[in-house]
């Protein structure tokens, strides 16, 4: 891709920005990262996402694409390398992992588990979901982007404490 591609994101604390990073990495797309401090947002972020003022923002040849779900669909539609991220999903805008997740069979099983079907199906769903999580976290592309565990724990403990004291 010859056009300039920039991704406004945090270092790692936004799971929504991480979705965009993973999609770009899986697709093998070259891009520049613009790190944002969400407590002191840059003029560029506020210019490219004036309504929500959040990351991620994908800037493609000067045109901003905001919202992680829209960015994923844009990457999938406009950047053909690496296969489709979203092709196996029936409703990509409602699927929490958007193309990085389980097969249709597992989604059906997990739906049954949530709806309280048999304990046999619940156990089968749990095993498949754990296997998917293990495969996902062992992927080299995912490992490269994954935040350090100790920093994640520290951040989420601080977030939890702030919410409890509010």
UniProtKB/TrEMBL annotation:
Domain of life from the UniProt record: Eukaryota
The entry's function note states:
Is involved in the conjugation of reduced glutathione to a wide number of exogenous and endogenous hydrophobic electrophiles.
Coiled-coil regions, chain positions: none
This entry's Gene Ontology molecular function terms read: glutathione transferase activity
**Record-linked PROSITE patterns:** GST_NTER
Specify the protein name. Glutathione S-transferase
Q: What is its EC number?
A: 2.5.1.18
Q: Which organism is it from?
A: Salvia divinorum (Maria pastora)
InterPro entries tied to this protein: Glutathione_S-Trfase_N, Omega/Tau-like, Thioredoxin-like_sf
Q: One Pfam family from the UniProt entry?
A: GST_N
Q: What is one GO cellular-component annotation here?
A: cytosol
Please provide the record's keywords in A-Z order: Cytoplasm, Transferase
GST N-terminal domain mapped to chain residues: 4-83
The chemistry this enzyme catalyses reads: RX + glutathione = an S-substituted glutathione + a halide anion + H(+)
List locations, semicolon-separated. Answer: Cytoplasm, Cytosol
Which leading EC class covers this enzyme?
transferase
Family per similarity comment: Belongs to the GST superfamily.
